[in-house]
Amino acid sequence: MGRQEKIARSIVRALVWPNFNGNQKRSNSNPLRLMLALFSAFFSLYQLLLLKIRPADFAKLRREHWDVSDDDYIESFRPPQSEAGKEEEGLTAIGDMGFSGSTFYATADQKYLVKSVPRHSEHSFFRDDLLTPYVQYMATHPRSLLVRICDFLGASGSSVGRIFRMAPSHHIVMENIMYGKDEAKKRGDADWENWDLKPTSYFYPERDIADGALTSEATKDQLADEFHDKIILSQEQADEFFARLEEDTKLLAEHNAVDYSLFLVRMKLPEEDVQREADPEEETAISPPEDGPSVPPGPPTWRTGIASADGKHVYRASILDFFWAKHKLQPKLMTLLINLWNACISKDGPMSITTTPEEYRERFLRMCRKYVEVKKD
Length: 377
Prior knowledge:
Blueprint: H1 3-16, H2 23-27, H3 31-42, E1 50-52, H4 55-65, H5 70-75, E2 91-97, E3 102-107, E4 112-116, H6 120-140, E5 149-155, H7 160-163, E6 170-175, H8 181-187, E7 193-197, H9 205-208, H10 217-220, E8 231-233, H11 235-254, E9 257-258, E10 261-268, H12 271-278, E11 306-307, E12 313-320, E13 324-325, H13 329-344, H14 357-370, E14 372-374
Parallel strand pairs: 8-14
Antiparallel strand pairs: 1-5, 2-3, 3-4, 4-6, 5-6, 7-10, 9-13, 10-12, 11-12
Helix pairs in contact: 11-14
């Protein structure tokens, strides 16, 4: 079994069988079995013992605000049975993402993603600074664009794999707003497109030093995307979109978060639906997908899908990666290095991870407004 499969199994074990790693299980074990379990856990390289962090808070969000039952949630992580009756993996790795070393996993039903958070500055910021405000905010802002985080896992105890960072110590379970893509593909619908959008006007060493000649194309491909089009919205849709962005980014700026991104998904509607929308005498067939891991409030929303004002596309959007905070040690060191670079070598300005929260928010909102075009009646 490979590294990613072992990490995935430790995640599934913590979510589906939480008592397996808990004190209750250990207290019921005989001394020899306990010693063997502790020995195995310490020398484990990839299958770390993971525990849920603040499980009651996330369970309350799922049950009371997102209408997700415990049974349905856990079922998404249970290993499915193949046609041959063999148990398959409950999570599948879908690649390393970005420069943080994070890995993403998807559940078999595609409803949830699990993102590893290996950097101490990021998982400690979420646990110690942002978690309580996030839970309170998401309970009172049902239309928020902040990604819905359903669980937070952290490693328990010491192990060889944790000491030498061979496996990530923390993971975040979140909804997958790409849910439904596989079913759409089976139906023969047009491929869904997606972009991970951040302000590109910042200084990115991988791109801007020596015109990017010192960095591989694969590395540069991991930088933020650019959206070379417009999201066509009605005035009402645009006002709602900008209002959500304003509120959500205000929360992030108040807690020193920077470098978050807007994840944008675009689904092309069938041509017959576009023609039907263009003819006012025809009843429109445009109906954004309603199914998803956590629906309330009912569609249409930016999580389930918003039909564009020109009737050509359905859009989803979510704010991701809000775990980089200016007051943590690693961001402070990066800010110092960039300030030295600007003072001694070239005045290229701040990076997205070294600017102030207020300045990042301003550029982020300006970027989002640039991508929207309001269709006049």
